[in-house]
Amino acid sequence: MTMPNPPALAGHYRVRVTKDHLVFAAGHFITYNGDHCERIHGHNYRVAVEVEGPLDDNHYVFDFIALLELSRSIVAEWDHRMLLPDGSGLIAVHDDPGEGPAHVRVCYKERRWVFPKEECVILPIPNTTTELLARLFGQRLWERMGQQGLKPPSVLRVEVEENFGQMAAAEWRNPSE
Ligand SMILES: Nc1nc2c(c(=O)[nH]1)N=C([C@H](O)[C@H](O)COP(=O)(O)OP(=O)(O)OP(=O)(O)O)CN2
Fold it and tell me: Where does the record locate the signal sequence feature (predicted)?
């Protein structure tokens, strides 16, 4: 009797990229448990990206090189930057009225920080948790795949490791499949 192919071999594959250059060193602080706010600190965040789907004409799920280049473009925007949330109800991020538009003033209750704007990225998320960084990274990756005319995968998964042994992942399934 001939056995049918096991489902994983029938047409669904997975590739994963995580390289030494998929790392961004960035400063941040988060709010938690309502009215707590961390002290400013930084991490060497490490990113891994996984894509699942059928094989294309090259017998790829997705070209490693294209996936690395797109991921690297996002890492480069966040590397050596202060990550600030735009959308927190607790942390306010504004142009600094004293220093002018080249600086941002960040306020949490009575605490104040002023940063050169060029050294910050103001992200459309309510808190710079690892989960939300992974989600935003994946959203940007998905958009950039579309901008480059690349076929959207069946599944995209982004993992962001904040520290050894501490990571968060966000995952999307292609709604048109
Ligand atoms: N699920 C999540 N939990 C926590 C997050 C998060 O993003 N998602 N973030 C934090 C803090 O940002 C904090 O940076 C993590 O704290 P800590 O582990 O202390 O980080 P360190 O880099 O200082 O690591 P050490 O082990 O203390 O050296 C908290 N929770």
Answer: none
